[in-house]
Fold this sequence. Notes:
binds S-adenosylmethionine, 7 helices, single chain
Amino acid sequence: MKDGYRFMGALYEIIGAIYSLGRIPRCKVSMLKHVKPGDRVLVAGVGHGTEAVAAARMGALVTAVDLSPTMIKQLQKKIARSGLDTSGLDTSGSNGSSPSPPPIQMINDNILNVTDPDGYDMVIANFFLNVFPRELMTEIFHHMTGLVKPGGCMVIGDFTLPAAGGWVFRVFQNIYWYIAAIFFWITADNAVHQVYDYPEMLKSKGFDIPEITYFNIFGIKSYWSILGKKPKP
Length: 233
Ligand SMILES: C[S@@+](CC[C@H](N)C(=O)[O-])C[C@H]1O[C@@H](n2cnc3c(N)ncnc32)[C@H](O)[C@@H]1O
């Protein structure tokens, strides 16, 4: 299994917090206000797991998936520091084998290998889909939308699409994104591409977009957290 984050995985979260002047950590948890105790929440490409731990604290049943063993270790450390009851913690990837329900079930695997016939109330992709070239991103996005149960939602937190606000804003948003993309291309072999239009992608899958929260830097929309709701049949 290729671990693109083995060199800088430990520093990943602090780099994001500094580069975003604290906006990324806020962006990652902003839609958790829609989580209710007992909800099933899936976090794909969980990294250090800020939102996974926050959702577990709210009483959600969290499944956290990451391909990188380095990132899974960082998540384990965060859970250990979190004060969550880890007595039944299950890192095996299998459901229901623990004596008590684990606060966070960790799966060290490709998200494409994760299936669930019941579906999740919330599927989260924070700063995740942007690591892939368009074709693979589309495949993973399609797979993830299939994991949302009818009436459930998908949350995407990421860099904003350089669009509204005039050309000065668009230049800033583009430069801001490409600096990050090139840094992670060098350090983690992520793809470099134009910012993806996540609201349009969600709409194309029949999702409604009831809410988008923006996080600004110098008054410029720099990050967004998008709530997509899957209609009931
Ligand atoms: C840019 S990081 C984002 C981490 C975290 N979501 C955050 O916002 O801090 C992308 C994460 O996706 C993971 N990843 C990449 N490809 C993956 C895949 N196919 N399945 C699951 N995780 C993957 C990486 O290991 C990394 O932890």
